[in-house]
Amino acid sequence: MRVAVVGAGPGGLVTLKYLKEAHKFFNIDPIEVRLFEREGAVGGTFTQRTYEDAELVSSKYLTCFSDFRADSDDPDFLSAERFIRYLKEYADYFHLWPEISLNTSVTSVRRGQAGGHVVHYRGADGVDMKWECDAVSVCTGLHVTPNTPDVKGMGKVKVVKHFSQFKKRDEFPQGGTVVVLGTGETGMDIAHLAVTSPTKRVVLCHRQGFLGAPKRIPTPILLPGLLGRSSKPNSPELPIDVSWQAPLLDSYLPPFLRDRLFTWRFQDIIIKLANWLCSGTTKGVDQWVGGLDKDRFHTSQRH
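Structure tokens predicted for Dimethylaniline monooxygenase (303 residues):
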């Protein structure tokens, strides 16, 4: 069997690894695999579209592959640069490089006349070639093509950049106003870079409210409205993705519980109560602005 993998980001690399080793776990012949990557390095978006001080928002405990953990002395949250090195170390450890073709663009994939697929690609030398295979795994990710909204009057703004074009703090206008559209992970990162730059004003825009969450659970402050907001600054703060108070969201539920609104109402109360007890607000962990409206801010609306 022959399989083509398109894309050398995290998904492509781990797909290649498991296809290479499938015959060790199943009664099948070794699979012939080729991975095609149009850029000159592995890593995908983490290599091509990151910016100054970029750091992963998921901790190393959940981000790294279970068969190749991060170093014990790595910080809880890897920088983009360190994560790229980790992916290269992963490729080294599992001997993936012989199957990886860098600077190689897949131009089309078509059905073969006798079944299977024909992958048409252009190599680093500019020569068009093709490779016949039985299956294709597309691992090109979600963030290759920038999505720029059509905002009325945008053309009158002096400088407009999509985050994929942004690299360093010094791109912000000194003493100027920066407007950040979007309150996702990247939007928050860019806003923080802008606030910590010599800008005059930073405006963070959201369309329908947002639910913010820190990467680390802040040191709990029990009943801050009654007992004040003093905390222990030297107390360890755990990554939020390994300490989240959502057992019903992160574990199996039998259908008779999963499909009843009572379950989600109970979970909703628990989460909001925990937020209030620890930070004094139910909008989020220490979140006081930009909250979701009542109809959307419910555990059953999580996607």
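The chain has a mean pLDDT of 87.
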